[in-house]
Every structure is written in structure tokens, then in C-alpha cells.
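queue> pop job 88
queue> type: inverse folding (structure -> sequence)
queue> payload:
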């Protein structure tokens, strides 16, 4: 299992009531006085139609256009999404997602200069909750209005199948190798947000599949309190949610693009792109710095080299 974070349409029914009238002697009902009795038809009440709520329009906004308490830190020029009064950071990988790096298909089994490895797309990141997945921040930029963050959804916005033989380097498990320092690198640290949601897609979910992302409460030993949905955002306040993703079974190999649905007040969810597309596929061969210490690999690294290398594992 991979762990990877209008208008209102009013419908007015029109009921056509047939009026039964007398038509000749054979259709009339005659009382004792000989007068004709007319039957009044029964009219069925029209059902009450509740309009479907529409999503709030989403647009991108430059950092320089944001003022007040939601203004980005000096030097931060990254654009944001705007959903009504809410300013939403473009979701990115959380600190502990730690994606691997794809080694190009067909790369020969020999030492590879680290600087020559393309870094896109991120490969097999940790998408579970509690540090992995994606993280974003949501801030109410209105100076006067309070809004309620109701819920989150998650959607597979796009999917491209991958049919190659995946080679990958996991910086956390094997580091890189240099002649001067040997094997270097690794991962660690801690990560915390104040709101966690997690979405689970069924096996074989395709582009367009949308599921609810309910809140989960993690047993974290940390002084930062965890917020609860629905969450009231007063003017100038916000929250930082962490979005985890999983599939019920082995996901079809491919490049996935996710979108996060944010439901505000009484509106339907408004969707924003969740960071970069990610490659999710089984690894056929792993590369690491540790593998470079094998004699056959070490012999191919120049003795005077100051570069970092990764090598194929046996």
C-alpha cells in the first residue's frame, strides 16, 4: 500500500392537472334533482427543491497583493490561492515526506554523479499523516468577517500510467558517497501542524476520483494543540493542515496529481492543486551512497574526485 496527503440551479416542477368535465350524457353524474355533479381534481403539492451549493471561485494571488495579518514573510514571493476571503498557501510536501529521486530509465549499473540526476518528478514520497503528505496554511484575510472551515476532500486531478522499470535513490536510506567523507546524508527531524486530515482512495482509483478527507487526531506528545473541524477562523487567523493520502491496495504505477477541496461556510468544496505531480511505482533497483563502497563500484570513482556519487545496489 502506498501512503501518499455557478450558479444555483433552481428546478421548478410544472404539474399539469387534467380537469374532468362533463361531456355528453354518458359522462355526467346526475343527482336526485337531475343536476350535473362536477368532480374537482386533486392537485399534488409541488416538492420543495433545495438548491445545490456552489463552490467559491478560486484564483491565484501574488504575495505582494496580500496585506494585513495574512501577508507573507519578507522575501517570500510565492503566489497563493484565494478562496473568497481565505488565503491558501500552494500546498507542498511536508518536511518528513522525503521523496526519493528517480534514476533515468536505462541508466547503466555504475556510479552516477549526484548532480546529474534529474529531481523531477518526486518519487514515492511518504504521504501518510503525522509528518508526511502535503502541508498548507489557510488564513482568513478579511478584516471584519468570520468564516468556518467545514471539511476537506481529496481528488486525483490527473493520472499518467508509468510502464518503465523504476530505478530510484532514497536520500534517507543510503545517502551519497564522497571520497573525502565516505557515505554522507540521511534524514531526520520532527514536523507538526495543528490539523491533520487523511484520505483513502480505493484500489484502481482513476483521474477524477474524489473522496472525503476526514480529520484524524494523532496522539502526539507536543504542546501545540490540534484544532477541530468545523473550525471558526476569526479575521486575521488561520490554521496549518497536514494532508495524508493512502490507497486501499497497490496503486496503479503512474504519475499522480492531487487536488485539495476546501469547504468554507455553506459552499461546496473549492479545489486547489496539491503541489507537484508525484511518481508512485514499485522500485526495481535502488541506488545509494553506501553501495559505492563496494570494491567494484569504488574502483570506478576517481581517487581525486570531490564529487558526490550514488551507485546501484546489488
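queue> result:
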Amino acid at each position: 500500500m502506498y501512503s501518499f496527503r455557478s450558479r444555483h440551479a433552481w428546478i421548478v416542477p410544472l404539474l399539469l392537472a387534467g380537469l374532468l368535465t362533463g361531456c355528453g350524457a354518458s359522462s355526467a353524474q346526475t343527482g336526485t334533482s337531475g343536476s350535473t355533479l362536477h368532480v374537482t381534481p386533486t392537485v399534488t403539492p409541488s416538492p420543495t427543491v433545495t438548491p445545490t451549493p456552489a463552490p467559491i471561485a478560486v484564483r491565484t494571488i501574488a504575495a505582494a497583493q496580500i496585506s494585513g495579518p495574512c501577508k507573507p514573510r519578507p522575501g517570500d514571493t510565492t503566489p497563493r490561492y484565494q478562496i473568497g476571503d481565505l488565503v491558501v498557501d500552494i500546498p507542498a510536501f511536508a518536511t518528513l515526506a522525503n521523496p526519493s529521486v528517480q534514476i533515468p530509465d536505462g541508466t547503466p549499473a555504475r556510479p552516477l554523479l549526484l548532480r546529474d540526476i534529474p529531481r523531477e518528478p518526486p518519487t514515492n514520497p511518504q504521504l501518510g499523516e503525522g509528518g508526511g503528505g502535503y502541508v498548507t496554511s489557510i488564513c482568513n484575510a478579511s478584516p471584519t468577517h468570520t468564516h468556518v472551515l467545514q471539511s476537506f476532500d481529496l481528488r486525483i486531478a490527473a493520472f499518467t500510467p508509468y510502464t518503465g522499470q523504476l530505478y530510484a535513490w532514497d536520500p534517507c536510506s543510503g545517502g551519497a558517497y564522497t571520497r573525502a567523507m565516505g557515505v554522507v546524508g540521511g534524514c531526520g527531524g520532527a514536523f507538526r501542524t495543528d490539523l491533520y486530515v487523511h484520505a483513502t482512495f480505493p484500489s484502481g482509483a482513476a483521474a477524477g476520483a474524489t473522496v472525503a478527507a476526514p480529520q484524524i487526531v494523532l496522539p502526539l506528545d507536543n504542546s501545540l494543540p490540534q484544532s477541530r473541524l468545523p473550525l471558526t477562523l476569526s479575521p486575521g487567523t488561520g490554521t496549518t493542515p497536514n494532508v495524508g493520502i493512502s490507497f486501499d491496495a497497490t496503486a496503479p504505477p503512474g504519475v499522480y496529481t492531487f487536488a485539495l477541496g476546501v469547504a468554507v461556510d455553506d459552499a461546496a468544496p473549492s479545489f486547489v492543486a496539491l503541489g507537484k505531480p508525484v511518481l508512485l511505482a514499485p522500485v526495481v533497483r535502488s541506488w545509494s551512497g553506501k553501495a559505492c563502497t563496494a570494491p567494484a563500484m569504488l574502483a570506478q570513482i576517481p581517487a581525486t574526485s570531490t564529487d558526490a556519487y550514488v551507485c546501484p545496489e546489488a
